[in-house]
Amino acid sequence: MPIASRVSQLHLSGIRTVMALAAERQKRGFPVIHMEVGQPDFPTPAHITEAGFAAARNGFTGYTPNAGVQSLRDSVAARVSTSSGIGVSGANVCITSGAVMALYLTLMAIIEPGDEVLVPDPGWPNYISAVEMAGGTVVPYKLDPSDGYWMDLDTLSSKVSPRCRAIMINYPSNPTGATVSVEKMLKLLKFVEDHNLQVISDEVYEDFVFEGAHVSALSHASRERVIMISGASKSYSMTGWRLGWVVAREEVIQAVSKLVEPIASCPSSVAQAAVEAAINGPQDCVAEMKAAYKRRAEIAVSILEPAGLLISKPTGAFYAMVDISNSNLNSDQFVRRLLEEKGVAAAPGETFGHSARSSIRISTAASDDDVREGCKRIRDFLSLGN
Ligand code: PLP
């Protein structure tokens, strides 16, 4: 029996390819500095893990409602109300198995086959696979590194066809580490209002803005316009617990909750208990992780910027883009050789979009020493004219 064509048509991220190559190299007995994946290097804080254990011990191990337990939906609503300054209730929240699922189900809920979705270039590769799996068509829009990875609204306007339904945005950004100002956000939100688009704002790095406050799309637009995606993976170093959420008007939340049923029935009960403890417990762990990511970004900048290799200074998240245009290699060849010859794993720029094909993305979610040593090796590799 043949495998369905949607499988071969799926665009998978080049990040996982490098992860596999790096693991294989380690198996051969060679050490690797891991800067390829957005995997926080901190353990989940102990009080959060303990809440998950306690839930399991106390028998909280059954199915929950599709949209998650009410107390967690309310906790997420309270968290979002505080950070965005607008009142959101539990009815505006659907808990999912990670932000990745929140994103996919949101697209399934709001687009018809053939509808178009504007997707950032460079941007997180899963936006493309999620739009395509939902039957939509991806329309990439370029982000300009010299303008803090922002978009030109006139060019964007020329890309909006009558079939265009939504625009994906992501600040703080993976892969660029860029954040957004209130002024820019307001301009974009006026644009989406004028073009009658839905904004899907992926804010999973909302807790890691190095200067000033995070600018949430929710704070500045009508509730009808914005669907916010976020989760616990990055904020609380809980990637493997698989817990995320959608925050939107009730109609969207009801649709997403319905779609949860055939895909997962509900999110994990014990993960929900742990995340509830995370949201309602002390937040110093988040502040400590943010301070570490900021410090590591500064280490990377101090090595790559003087060598003229940093494309733009990261202002949030835990990523930076490095210019490899003087290497005569495409980004895929570059990361393979960097791994083999210098023992550093990085992600090829091409996987984040055509505009990033002369760059690589480094993740600074690694120890200070690894970030320092990894950046030095990248600099030396490039300065040898590879
Ligand atoms: N959105 C962005 C921009 C990401 O970088 C990631 C993970 O790397 C996610 C969403 C997925 O988060 P989750 O682990 O909650 O599925």
UniProtKB/TrEMBL annotation:
Keyword check for Metal-binding: no
KW Transferase (keyword) present: yes
Keywords noted in UniProt: Aminotransferase, Pyridoxal phosphate, Transferase
Catalytic activity: L-aspartate + 2-oxoglutarate = oxaloacetate + L-glutamate
Protein name (record): Aminotransferase
Taxonomic superkingdom: Bacteria
Top-level enzyme category: transferase
Record GO terms (molecular function): L-aspartate:2-oxoglutarate aminotransferase activity; pyridoxal phosphate binding
CDD domains hit by this protein: AAT_like
Gene Ontology biological-process annotations: amino acid metabolic process
Quaternary structure and interacting proteins, as annotated: Homodimer.
Cofactor: pyridoxal 5'-phosphate
EC number(s) per entry: 2.6.1.-
Similarity-based family: Belongs to the class-I pyridoxal-phosphate-dependent aminotransferase family.
Domain Aminotransferase class I/classII large, first and last residues per copy: 32-378
